[in-house]
Design goal:
Blueprint lengths: L6 H17 L2 H8 L7 H11 L17 H14 L5 H15 L2 H12 L5 E4 L5 H4 L19 E6 L2 E12 L6 E8 L6 E8 L5 E6 L8 E13 L8 H37 L1 E2 L2 E2 L4 H28 L6 H22 L11 H15 L2 H11 L12
Parallel strand pairs: 1-4
Antiparallel strand pairs: 2-3, 3-7, 4-5, 5-7, 6-7, 8-9
Helix pairs in contact: 1-4, 4-8, 4-9, 5-6, 5-8, 8-9, 8-10, 8-11, 9-10, 10-11, 10-12
Length: 396
């Protein structure tokens, strides 16, 4: 592994950081959260036109830039610094790779170029308690989350040459504004029970989408109801590759989220250091007190260790290794620690709604609810590595 970044990778980071610094400051962030979409469409257009961000990790054959997951993860790190709300995670990290992996030639050619140029946004809608189940981050991802033939989840049935979906998904990232939904559904009854993915357009008849109040407002979520909605099957009818594709996307998502969390943790620490250097008590800056130095030193070590884990996970994803879940666990823990210390060391102002500190803490907590929690990410990684299997003999 080469620990250094290429000139192209450094250019992506630098350019994106400069653009977000100009277009996504604290005031712009809060204004974007209050819009119906939950993000600034003009910023998304700028990211697409100036950087080609939506197509960063898509093949050139479909209008993308052809970079790897590593470049996408580095872009997410810069996005995490400002907590920039955008369709990047839902569209480019969750939905687009599934279309690329499972879609027919016609589906890829019709959808991926529009995603790459930023004119089409998409979202992944999978039933269950959280995304982590379907993405095999905290379990084996066996497919029971889709409904398993029982009541609940989303059910699919044939209707002539097409399909109809009915059911409800309670947590869909950007589900209220996405122009395309990739919906996981169960079909086949008991005899041929299987999980399939379907494409549903945002204006389909019978589709009801309501934006929900989320703990982390920078990650808008929606409740999606499918009332006998017309849908198009994504890929083949056998469904053999669906669970494998979701698991692969889950590991990639974890690596990208890990880098994003590192960016957020680094920014939270930076803001706290700036504050303790300026805030005075007893005639001196509070940052000069040894106890404060020790606390921030511990946070710094956590963030640096998390950064190493995140970068390795981004690199490993492109080389066939799956360590995204472990990296995500470490980075979420580092972000939670950096945000909590930031709130404490900012004093009274750190608890106010007007300050940014709580947004970083909510990002850590919200991501744990969606993709964790940390102990389950680590437990699943331990199970996959067979660390605690019975029958091991310990030499004495």
């Amino acid at each position: 592994m080469d620990a250094g970044f290429t000139a192209e990778q450094e250019g992506i980071r630098r350019t994106l950081r400069e653009l977000l610094h100009k277009r996504c400051g604290p005031e712009e962030l809060r204004a974007a959260l209050d819009t119906p979409a939950g993000h600034d469409p003009a910023l998304w257009t700028a990211l697409a036109d100036q950087l080609g961000l939506p197509g960063l990790a898509l093949p050139e054959a479909y209008g993308g830039i052809g970079c790897s997951v590593t470049e996408l993860a580095l872009a997410a790190e810069e996005s995490g610094r400002t907590l920039a709300p955008s369709p990047l995670l839902a569209t480019c990290v969750l939905a687009a790779p599934l279309i690329l992996a499972l879609g027919t030639d016609t589906q890829r050619a019709g959808l991926l170029p529009r995603i790459a140029d930023g004119t089409l946004t998409a979202a992944l809608a999978v039933p269950g308690a959280d995304l982590a189940t379907a993405l095999a981050l905290t379990g084996t991802g066996g497919g029971d989350w889709a409904g398993g033939g029982r009541a609940g989840g989303v059910q699919a049935r044939r209707a002539g040459d097409g399909w109809r979906l009915y059911g409800q998904v309670d947590q869909v990232l950007d589900g209220h504004s996405a122009q395309l939904l990739v919906v996981g559904a169960h079909t086949g009854g008991f005899a041929r029970s299987r999980t399939l993915l379907f494409l549903v357009t945002g204006d389909a008849a019978g589709l009801v989408r309501v934006r929900q109040t989320a703990l982390d407002a920078t990650r808008p979520q929606a409740r999606v109801q499918l009332r006998d909605v017309e849908a198009e099957l994504l890929g083949a009818d056998d469904g053999d590759g669906v669970l494998g594709a979701l698991s692969a996307v889950g590991d990639t998502t974890a690596a990208v989220l890990a880098c994003e969390a590192v960016g957020a943790a680094d920014r939270a620490l930076q803001r706290t250091v700036e504050h303790v250097r300026q805030r005075e008590q007893f005639g001196r800056a509070i940052g000069s007190f040894q106890a404060v130095k020790h606390r921030l030193a511990d946070v710094y070590v956590q963030v640096q260790a998390a950064r190493s884990a995140a970068y390795y996970a981004a690199w490993a994803t492109t080389h066939g290794e799956r360590v995204g879940g472990l990296a995500l666990a470490q980075t979420l823990e580092a972000l939670r620690g950096a945000a909590a210390e930031g709130i404490q060391l900012h004093g009274g102002i750190g608890f106010t709604w007007e300050h940014e500190a709580h947004l970083y803490f909510k990002r850590a907590s919200g991501d744990e609810l969606l993709f964790g929690p940390v102990h389950r990410l680590r437990a699943h990684a331990a199970d996959a590595a067979h660390l605690f299997e019975q029958g091991w003999e310990v030499a004495v």
